[in-house]
C-alpha cells in the first residue's frame, strides 16, 4: 500500500514544481531595433533622410501592455521617440505596436 501512496505524492510535487517554472518570453532590444529599422527605412529613404537607425534601452518583456521607449534616428541627426507596446502573446510569438508618445498639451 505504500507504493500507491508514494505515486500521488510524487505527482503532486511534480505539478507544483512545474507550475513554479513558468517562463516569461522576451523580445531582445536588438530584435525590436531591427523591426523599427525595417518599418522606418523605406519612408526615411523615400524622404531623403535615410537610413534609419534605432536604439532601445532594454529587452521587451512579453506581457500584454508592457512598453519601452525606443529612439529612431534619421541620417540627418533627427531623433524620434517611439513607444513600443506588447499587444499580444501567442505561444512563442510576441506582437507589438510602435507609436509616437503623446505630445504635451500646447506642444508642437
From TrEMBL:
Pfam families (UniProt xref): DUF4333
Protein name, per record: DUF4333 domain-containing protein
Signal sequence, start to end: 1-20
Keywords: Signal
Positions of the DUF4333 domain: 14-91
UniProt entry tagged with the keyword Glycoprotein: no
Xref: PROSITE patterns: PROKAR_LIPOPROTEIN
Amino acid at each position: 500500500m505504500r507504493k500507491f501512496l508514494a505515486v500521488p505524492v510524487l505527482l503532486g510535487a511534480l505539478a507544483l514544481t512545474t507550475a513554479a517554472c513558468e517562463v516569461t518570453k522576451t523580445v531582445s532590444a536588438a530584435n525590436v531595433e531591427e523591426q523599427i529599422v525595417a518599418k522606418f527605412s523605406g519612408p526615411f529613404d523615400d524622404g531623403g533622410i535615410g537610413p534609419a537607425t534605432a536604439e532601445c534601452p532594454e529587452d521587451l518583456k512579453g506581457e500584454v501592455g508592457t512598453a519601452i521607449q525606443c529612439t529612431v534616428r534619421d541620417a540627418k541627426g533627427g531623433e524620434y521617440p517611439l513607444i513600443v507596446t506588447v499587444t499580444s502573446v501567442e505561444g512563442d510569438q510576441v506582437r507589438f505596436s510602435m507609436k509616437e508618445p503623446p505630445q504635451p498639451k500646447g506642444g508642437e
